[in-house]
Structure formats: C-alpha cells, structure tokens
Amino acid sequence: MATLTVRPVETRKELVQFIRLPRMLYAGMPGYAPPLDMEQTDLLDPKHNGIFRHASVQYFMAWRNGEPVGRISAVVDAIAIESWDEKIGWFGALDALAEPEIVSMLLDAAYEWLKNQGMARMRGPVTLGYHGESGLMIEGQSEHAMVGTPWHPKYLHGFVERHGLVKAKDLLTYKLDLTAEVDERHIVPGSLKFGEGKLGDISVSPLSKKQITAQGEVLRGLYNDAWAGTYNFVPLQDYEMDAMIKQLKPILRPEHYVQIDQAGEPIAMALVVPNVFDIAGDLGGSPSPIGWVELGVRLLRHRFTSGRVILLGVSHKVRGTILGAMMPSLAIAELLRRRSTLPYQSVELGWILESNLPMRNLIERLVPEPNKIHRIYEKAITPNAA
User: Fold this and answer.
1) Strands 88-96 and 121-124
2) Which of 54, 110, 239, 384 sits a CA distance of 20 to 30 A from 28?
3) Range of 205's domain?
4) Most distant CA pair in the chain: distance in Å?
5) pTM for this prediction
6) 189 and 155 in a common domain
7) Left (φ > 0), alpha (ψ -120 to 50) or beta: where does 197 sit?
8) By its UniProt entry, which SUPFAM superfamilies does this protein fall under (predicted)?
9) Are 30 and 128 found together in one domain?
10) What value does the CA radius of gyration of the chain take, rounded to a whole number of Å?
11) Alpha-carbon distance 173 to 386, whole Å?
12) Which residues have a Cβ under 8 Å from the Cβ of 169 and sit 6 or more positions away?
C-alpha cells in the first residue's frame, strides 16, 4: 500500500493545488458544485485575503503516490485572540477523500502546529477566519449551492468526530422563498411605517455605488457593534471591508442593502449578496475562454435567481428595547418589499446560531426548518511537557 504523508504547503504550485483540490476530490459527487477558482483564490491566497495581515496561517496537504488526497489550514488570528482573551486557533479548509486516516492525519498536523504556536484550543472548521467560510456541512448536501457556504460530503463529519473533536455550535441556514405567501406570514403592524407615527425618526438609507467606500465603513462599524461579544465573533477590520467592497461592487445593486437609521444614526442593517452559483455553476471552477465570456454576459444581465443575507444586525444602542426587537423584522420586511425590483426567487438567511432563539423564532415563522446545518467543533490542546 502506498505511503500516506502530510506536509506543509511551501510552493506557489502547491498553493494552486491546495486551492483547486476540493473540485478534484469531489468531482461527480451528487450535490457538489465547484466554486470558481477565482473566488477561492480571493479567500485562500495571501495576496488577496486581508487576514494574512494579522494572522499566521499554515496550509497542509495529504499526499499519496504523488497526488494530493486531502487538505487543511491552521490559523492563529491575533485579533481573535485579543477579542476573546483566549488562545484558540482555527482549523479550516478541511477536505479529503472518504478515508478516516487521511482526515485524522490532517487534523493531527493542524493540532501540532497550533500547539507549537502556544494555542490552548483548536476550533473549526473556519476558513480562514470568522468572515470567511464557517462550519462543516452536516445537512444540506443536496441543496442548491450558495456563495460563501462551504460544501462537504456526508462522510466527513463522522471522521472528524471519530478523531475526538466535539460539537461546539451548530450554524443554521434557512431558505426563504420570495413569494406573496411569505408577505402574508411576515406580518408587520400596519402602523409601523418608516418615517410615520412611532417610527417618525426612522428612515432607510439605500446603497450608493458612488459613496460605497464611505458606506462600507459605516456598515463595518454597525456590524462590529451589532455582533460584539457573540460566540466566535471577530471584529471586521477596515482593510477586510475594503477587500469585500472591491469583490462585491460589480454585482451589488442599491436594493441589496438595507440600512435603518434613527435620527440619522445607523441602528440596523441587512446586506444581500447575489449567488454566483446561479450564473457560474454550470461553467466549472475554471471556465474556458468562451465560458468566461458567457459568465460576463450573465453578470451584466444580472441573471441571478437567489442570494444570501450575509449581514443582519442591530446596534447595541437599541438592543433590548422594543425598537431593537422590531429591527430584524423590519429589515426583512424591507428586503421582501424590494423583491419586485430584483429577479430573485429565494434568499438564504445563514449562520444563525442554534442558541439565537429570538432570531430563530422570527425566521421560523416564515421558514419552519433550516435547509442547511453547519457545525463548529472544538478540541482542547494538551501543552508540551516542560
């Protein structure tokens, strides 16, 4: 039997293999749609992802007969450690053939690297940080692929648990079909209208591409304020927001962004990102020249049919108040109102913590069950003997 080895990614060629590996491993599996290599490069290449400015990252690949058969990342995020005041390191980008030994050796490699970095606990999968791709897919493999949402085969979580990692949290995703029936179920009292009555000082700010950089900084401040102190949260940095805007600007429209202001001060937001799989899913991870032309045409014509709500939050200034409790409902209602100007048939509300009962209760009035579940695992790291 050929020897199985795991070694660090050291060359540019190996980095390219690392980025492309999932679509090689999972080709032909039911439900799998390869993401664009370009999108994954933005996530994993040190030249593109701002997390490398404040984090130490090491990639590993498993090899057999000169061919890669699995991969994993290990990350020490300085901002995360400062935010949590705990020495927790990430593992992520975990993908492998259906062999428990491969997964075990990859997890061992990440564990040993994190231990040598002085970490006390390993958490993941998170690629490469909180603002990337989170969780290992437990359910939803046959659902339509969604931007920014990792896909894993059904066997993988069993191998992870067999290795000794335990569940920390589940992240739930709900598919909201944009129909008139949803409007009927999502009831907002008729007296509650922006700029009128009890909401007289409440207004909605649209997205402006001319001012998107300034708006991005407002959004970043509101986002960090809204989610500060929640499980696994790491503050979004200005350079990370700049990179996000650069990536999203070509596909964003004013209707994608809801910013709710009180007396001119932002207190809640929601941002929908078009689902790139709608226009690229049939082109493969590395389209041909003709495929790129077709992709460009679809992009210009905005031929998306779905999207993902990536940011939904309420400022701590109104959290715990009646107004604060209404904000997520009003933000969703505003997105539903805009469906007539967008071609989307559905949106996914993702990364809802299983313990976030207020948000779950709101969403489950519209969608009773999640369509995807991703799991975060943890494992204590035993320090080296003195």
Assistant:
1) parallel
2) 110
3) 176-374
4) 75
5) 0.91
6) no
7) left
8) Acyl-CoA N-acyltransferases (Nat)
9) yes
10) 21
11) 45
12) 231, 232, 353, 354, 355, 375, 376
